[in-house]
UniProtKB/TrEMBL annotation:
Gene3D superfamilies, per the entry: DD-peptidase/beta-lactamase superfamily
Name the record gives this protein: Beta-lactamase-related domain-containing protein
Ranges where the Beta-lactamase-related domain occurs: 51-357
Organism expressing this protein natively: Flammeovirga pacifica
PANTHER family recorded: BETA-LACTAMASE-RELATED DOMAIN-CONTAINING PROTEIN (PTHR46825:SF9), D-ALANYL-D-ALANINE-CARBOXYPEPTIDASE/ENDOPEPTIDASE AMPH (PTHR46825)
Length: 371
């Protein structure tokens, strides 16, 4: 949900310097000053993985939560919407296997799920478009569907505070969707514009489960996590945590959400936990064709820029100093940005959705360090 603020930064041109120890020390001093456990919106931990293709600068600073033990570079964190990259990869793998086509109507895979109510799923100007939405439109956020986390943000927060430990299912998510009339908060006819929505990725997650006859967690693990050896990554609340590293807590303002809330509602749009090393492994594997059989599949995933758009299929694209980066942001203040031509990698997490500082300054300094 937060990747838009990152796009603003990455469209500015700056002259960059070389990575040296003096610059690294200066960067570390800057990052350390951002930690503040006493603030109304505390930032108790920050993680970064920065690479110019040859040198890696990686660290975790701060504490698990306020007054707790220290984190390190291998500690984990909620990656939120970066999960969409994983969901998109599985969908495109299924396409390569001949099990779906991107122009297929998602209705043909999910019509048996009565709780989706396809005739009412997408109501726009008194017309129903739910049965017309395609897999590709969901991947690219071009379905026009509303979003339960944006269009009914305060309602969702209020509901969550009343059901802190609720274990959400996809059916629960769509029950909330309909009970709060998000189906009437659609934004346009399918494929006529762009609107970012987790609801579309919920439908993609259900499509994966229906086609494979396996839980989404098992698909992530068998198709991506285990083959790449991502030993600290898992689908939180849907499988056991395999990592021995503790998770840094995420906050909304002063609210320690990790301590208080079961965030299983993120599901296919944002439910994975990982660390900077595993995320680096993932994005490099993606562009090294370790997750696809065909180069053309990766080209489809990243075609947004050629179409004059900033969002492809589960990937955000952005330009910085005339160089193309691919990746995604996450609600808890996380960012992954990768330049596959020059092998520049930027992975950040501040675990705070409402930081008191301008997070674009952190991103800018991170980019400068590896450029």
């Amino acid at each position: 949900m937060r990747y838009l603020i990152f796009l603003f930064l990455f469209t500015n041109s700056i002259v960059f310097g070389q990575v040296n120890q003096k610059d690294i020390n200066k960067y570390e001093r800057f990052v350390n000053k951002l930690l503040n456990e006493g603030n109304k919106a505390p930032v108790t931990n920050i993680f970064y993985y920065l690479s110019n293709g040859e040198q890696v600068i990686q660290k975790g600073i701060g504490h698990i939560t306020k007054g707790d033990e220290k984190v390190d570079k291998n500690s984990t964190f909620k990656i939120a919407s970066q999960t969409k990259m994983f969901t998109a990869v599985v969908i495109l793998q299924l396409m390569e296997e001949g099990k779906l086509k991107l122009d297929d109507k998602v209705y043909q895979y999910l019509h048996h799920l009565d709780y989706l109510q396809f005739d009412s799923l997408h109501l726009y100007q008194d017309e129903s478009y739910g049965k017309e939405i395609t897999v590709k439109q969901l991947l690219q956020h071009r379905s026009g569907l509303g979003d339960i986390f944006v269009d009914t943000y305060q309602e969702f927060i209020d509901y969550t505070k009343q059901h802190l430990q609720k274990q959400w299912t996809p059916e629960d998510l769509f029950e909330f969707y309909y009970s709060h009339q998000v189906n009437h908060k659609t934004h346009f006819q399918p494929d006529s514009s762009y609107y970012y929505t987790d609801v579309g990725y919920f439908l993609l997650g259900l499509t994966i489960e229906n086609i494979t006859k396996k839980p989404l967690a098992q698909n992530y693990r068998e198709r991506i996590i285990d083959p790449l050896g991502m030993s600290s990554t898992y689908f939180e609340y849907h499988e056991e945590n395999p990592s021995t590293h503790q998770q840094g807590h995420a906050f909304i303002g002063g609210w320690d959400v990790t301590a208080d809330v079961n965030t299983s509602y993120d599901w296919a749009g944002g439910g994975l936990v990982s660390n900077t090393s595993d995320l680096s492994t993932f994005i490099h594997a993606l562009f090294d064709l370790k997750l696809y059989k065909n180069q053309s599949t990766l080209e489809q995933m990243t075609e947004a820029r050629s179409l004059g758009r900033t969002y492809g299929m589960g990937l955000t694209t952005f330009s910085f100093h005339n160089h193309m980066y691919y990746g995604h942001g996450g609600f808890w203040g996380s960012l992954m940005a990768y330049d596959p031509i020059r092998k520049r990698t930027i992975i950040l997490s501040i675990n705070q959705s409402e930081p008191a500082f301008n997070e674009m300054k952190l991103i800018k300094k991170s980019v400068l360090l590896v450029e």
